[in-house]
Amino acid sequence: MINNFKGPSYHKSFRILLVDDDQDFSNVMTLQLKNDFDCVVVQAMNPYEAMNHLIESYFDLVIIDWTLQSMTGWSALHRIDEALRIDTQISPKWGREKVPVILISADPLNEARSLNSEHFYKIGFLSKVQSAQKISEGVCQLIEKKKVKAS
């Protein structure tokens, strides 16, 4: 349910890639994030789809489920790292800036996981065991805390 919380508006220039294999969760979070931030949200249902999106375009933020069915979020980001290193057609922005990542999981043990990558850096962890509004508010807090800017 979308309530009255409104995050900062990025006027559709802020791009979020949401990677989660739970279609219902992804649909609800996409609506919530679009409503709260007035931004572009692109969904990827698996790491391979995420890799394709990231090679085609630069994103200002990646929100990724740490326990995807086909591989962990960590493995997915490292495979994407390798692909971005190899692909010569990627956006030049990839060579200059790391993309902030928010890890999400229903398992609180994943909160302590670190992320060390050439193209990505962890800005926080959010539990999926809460409302979409609470997750969106958590995204806003992490964005503001880390001063994440639109490209």
How is this structure best described in words?
With 151 residues, this protein is an alpha/beta fold. The chain has one domain: Rossmann fold (3-Layer(aba) Sandwich). 36% of the residues lie in helices and 20% in strands. It contains 4 helices and 5 strands. It has helices spanning 23-37, 47-56, 73-86, 132-146; strands at 15-19, 40-44, 61-65, 99-105, 120-127. A 5-stranded parallel beta sheet has the order 2-1-3-4-5, sandwiched between helices. Helix 3 links the parallel strand 3 (61-65) and strand 4. Helix 1 crosses helix 4 (132-146) and helix 2 (47-56) runs parallel beside helix 3. The longest helix is centred in the first third of the chain and has 15 residues, at 23-37. It is globular, with a radius of gyration of 14 Å. The N and C termini lie far apart (29 Å).
Topology summary:
Blueprint: E1 15-19, H1 23-37, E2 40-44, H2 47-56, E3 61-65, H3 73-86, E4 99-105, E5 120-127, H4 132-146
Parallel strand pairs: 1-2, 1-3, 3-4, 4-5
Helix pairs in contact: 1-4, 2-3
Key descriptive features of the protein:
disordered N terminus; alpha/beta; single chain; five-stranded parallel beta sheet; Rossmann fold
**The CATH architecture:** 3-Layer(aba) Sandwich
Distance between the termini: 29 Å
Low-confidence stretches: 1-5
CATH topology type = Rossmann fold
Overall average residue pLDDT: 83
Give the biggest sheet: 5 strands, parallel
The number of strands is 5
Q: Report the β-strand fraction as a percent range.
A: 15-25%
Radius of gyration: 14 Å
Question: Can you tell me the overall shape?
Answer: globular
Helical content (DSSP H or I, runs of 4+): 25-40%
Total number of helices: 4
Query: What is the succession of H and E elements?
Result: EHEHEHEEH
Number of domains: 1
Strand order of the largest sheet: 2-1-3-4-5
Structural class, by secondary structure, is: alpha/beta
CATH class: Alpha Beta
Q: State the CATH superfamily name.
A: Response regulator
